[in-house]
């Protein structure tokens, strides 16, 4: 698939078939994605691929902790709640998703269930936990590098028929992820990518988020009119 077509067709998948993803397929995805650029070719990333019982344990404990009122405990600093235009965009996609799923505004149980799905990494059969070397903190540059790797993983997966959702909710309790996956203390847990074969019957999978017109965020400097 040509790159432009691949980018435009890829969508965030929130409903997965309960079908195992073969390890060789994941290995091929990472083999492609690792060609992502990094600052000075430092390649600061590590990928921990979870499935089966370890993933189920992370899911269960993460969800139980968050439902029980535990504080978020992520390795990286959070921006807090979104405000202004960023909050507007967040609300807009939530409205689309809830509309597709038939979740009414006053349906608190279903809205809560949606939040819990995020904590469970949307029940995907595989989770790729992305980390970077702690010695590189404060990590603005390596955060950028991991973003490039992450998007490469998502595109390479889509090209092989797999859907993904980049999912911070699934690692809200990074201490649990670290313990279960035996992630070394000298690595910072950045985010995770929930992955699996898309369930085309899951309504939210058809939702496409809006994008601002280029005029809203692009400036051209030095070009002739």
TrEMBL record:
<protein>
    <submittedName>
        <fullName>Nitroreductase</fullName>
    </submittedName>
</protein>
<dbReference type="InterPro" id="IPR029479">
    <property type="entry name" value="Nitroreductase"/>
</dbReference>
<dbReference type="GO" id="GO:0016491">
    <property type="term" value="F:oxidoreductase activity"/>
</dbReference>
<comment type="similarity">
    <text>Belongs to the nitroreductase family.</text>
</comment>
<feature type="domain" description="Nitroreductase">
    <location>
        <begin position="8"/>
        <end position="197"/>
    </location>
</feature>
<dbReference type="InterPro" id="IPR000415">
    <property type="entry name" value="Nitroreductase-like"/>
</dbReference>
<dbReference type="Pfam" id="PF00881">
    <property type="entry name" value="Nitroreductase"/>
</dbReference>
<keyword id="KW-0560">Oxidoreductase</keyword>
């Amino acid at each position: 698939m040509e790159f432009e077509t691949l980018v435009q067709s890829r969508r965030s998948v929130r409903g997965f078939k309960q079908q195992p993803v073969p390890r060789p397929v994941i290995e091929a995805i990472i083999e492609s994605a690792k060609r992502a650029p990094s600052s000075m070719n430092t390649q600061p990333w590590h990928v921990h691929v979870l499935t089966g019982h370890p993933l189920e344990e992370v899911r269960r404990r993460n969800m139980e902790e968050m439902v029980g009122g535990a504080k978020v405990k992520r390795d990286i600093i959070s921006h807090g709640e979104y405000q202004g235009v960023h909050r507007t965009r967040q609300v807009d996609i939530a409205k689309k998703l809830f509309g597709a799923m038939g979740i009414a505004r006053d349906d608190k149980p279903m809205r809560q269930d949606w939040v819990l799905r995020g904590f469970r990494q949307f029940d995907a059969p595989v989770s790729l936990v992305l980390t970077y070397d702690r010695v590189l903190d404060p990590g603005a540059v390596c955060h950028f590098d991991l973003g490039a790797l992450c998007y490469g993983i998502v595109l390479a997966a889509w090209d092989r028929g797999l859907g993904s959702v980049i999912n911070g909710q699934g690692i809200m309790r990074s201490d649990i992820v670290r313990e279960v996956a035996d992630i070394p203390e000298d690595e910072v847990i950045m985010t995770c990518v929930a992955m699996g074969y898309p369930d085309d019957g899951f309504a939210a999978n058809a939702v496409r988020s809006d994008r601002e017109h280029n005029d809203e965020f692009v400036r051209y400097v030095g070009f002739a009119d």
